[in-house]
Every structure is written in C-alpha cells, then in structure tokens.
Amino acid sequence: MSLLQTADVGVMKEGRWLIQGANLAVNEGEVTALVGPNGSGKSTLLKLLCRLWRPTEGTVALDGKDLQTYSAREIAKRITIVQQSLTLRYSFTVLEVVSMGRYPHTGRVGRLSELDLEIVQNAMEKADVLPLADRHANRLSGGELQRVLLARCLATEASIILLDEPTSNLDLSHALDVLHLCRELAHEGKSVAIALHDLSSALRFADQVAVLSSGRVIDSGPTDAVLSPEKIQSVFSVRAERVRASTGQEGFLFDRDKEPS
C-alpha cells in the first residue's frame, strides 16, 4: 500500500528546474532508497515529500489526499525528516532536542507526560544517544549530532520517515546501526525513504529504489531488479560488478568507466 506518492512533481528555483516530472511511491512497511549522483534531485524530492518545499508542478499525495490540504501539525504527526548538515544555533541539551520530537503532539508549551518521556527515552536508546542526554547538542561531533536528530525524528512516532544521507557523518558501526534500524522500522509497518550514495547499502537494506539523474526519476522498482550493472554504468559512469560475500550478502565492486588520459 502506498501512503505517500508523487505525480509528475517538479520544483523550480531561480528559473531552474531542480527536479521535474518525478513519480515516486513510498510504501507502507518498506524501505525506499533514493540514489543518484550529486545534484540529481534526491534532497529536493525528500523536501517535497514532507512539504518543506511546495511543488511548482504536479502533486504530492498522502493517503490519496493532496499534501497541501493538510495542516502543518497533521503533517508533523505523520511525516518526519532528518536533513543533511543541519546545525543547531542554540545551546539545547540532547534530551531537550529529542524531546522536541513530541511537539506535534504536545505543542511547544505543553508539558511532557510520563508516556512522552518514555517515548523520548526509547528513541534515544534506538539511536544510541542516551549517554549524551545532558550534553549540549551544539557541541557534539557531526556524527553524534546526526544520531541525535535521528532520535528526535523517532520521538515523533511518525509513520513516514525521510532520511537524507543519514550515514554520511557516521563511523561504520553507527552507519550500519542506522541502516539496520531502517529495516526494523519498516518491519514495524513504518514507511522509510532514505537518500543514499552507497549502492551496496541500498542493495542490502532497501525494498524499492528510485534512481535519479539530472533532476528526473529515470527508473524505480524492486531494488534487486533496478540496480543492475548496466543501470549503474549509464547513470554513474562507472563499471559495476555485483559480488557475493562469504556471509551471503551482495554488494558492488566499482571501477572507472573510462581510464583517465
């Protein structure tokens, strides 16, 4: 079942199309990976999916209803996003930042109930930031802050989770933790859309994949079928070989499409 869907959606900024004619379905209980070169439109598409940006053309629908017709609070309860390179300007503690994930339910001046506090604590445990609870979030490393923002996202209990390159600042261990968490969330029935550069991770963890190039979704569907060596070569201009590790997990080895002269 598709909860969140775009129909020929596009956005223009300063006279230039950032993305155009994009069709994508984010399905219940699945991980959908967005892959493509830098500047292909992955971040733009995620912003359209949660109404951070409004489309210039086309529509985004939530449960078959135009996303523009929902209130901001309704959207915040249903859809949450972790963006790239987000900085905090004020000196909030980690606990305070994660607790902000409850605002769609309590309001900014509402007091957190025991249930709210339990939800916040569970979110911090899942993102492995509970030991950082009393530290100031604006003094954390990039990787630590990324996990704090993920915890805030989980605290919303939204059914649709959008993640923009969430593993980019993380060490290998925490990057794997985040990807495994995406699978767990999908198993719980949540819908996860994640922008990734690592095609091997997309192959391993995503049910569906959308390949973007030059502001367009050029292919989408089951990850195993879409992420072929031929598709990767045409989009990324690299040769790809699909390999299987001794553990049974599959991934890719890459080489230049053309040797430098």
Describe this structure in words.
By secondary structure, this protein is of the alpha/beta class. The chain contains 10 helices and 12 strands. The strands form 3 sheets. Strands 6-7-8-3-9-10 form a 6-stranded mixed beta sheet, with helices on both faces. Strands 2-1-4-5 form a 4-stranded antiparallel beta sheet, covered by helices on one side. Strands 11-12 form a two-stranded antiparallel ribbon. It is globular and about 55 Å long.
Relevant terms:
four-stranded antiparallel β-sheet, 12 strands, Rossmann fold, 261 residues, 33% helix
Average pLDDT works out at 93
Radius of gyration: 19 Å
Describe the biggest sheet?
Answer: 6 strands, mixed
- The fraction of residues in strands falls at 25-35%
State the CATH topology of the domain at 2-91 and 158-227.
Rossmann fold
Task: State the name of the first-level CATH class of the domain at 2-91 and 158-227.
Answer: Alpha Beta
Query: Reading side by side through the largest sheet, how are the strands ordered?
Result: 6-7-8-3-9-10
Low-pLDDT windows of residues: none
Count of alpha/pi helices: 10
Order of helices and strands: EEEHEEHEHHHHEHEHEEHHEE
Shape: globular
Structural class: alpha/beta
CATH architecture of the domain at 2-91 and 158-227: 3-Layer(aba) Sandwich
Instruction: State the fourth-level CATH superfamily of the domain at 2-91 and 158-227.
Output: P-loop containing nucleotide triphosphate hydrolases
Helicity level: 25-40%
Query: How many DSSP E strands?
Result: 12
In whole angstroms, how far apart are the ends?
49 Å
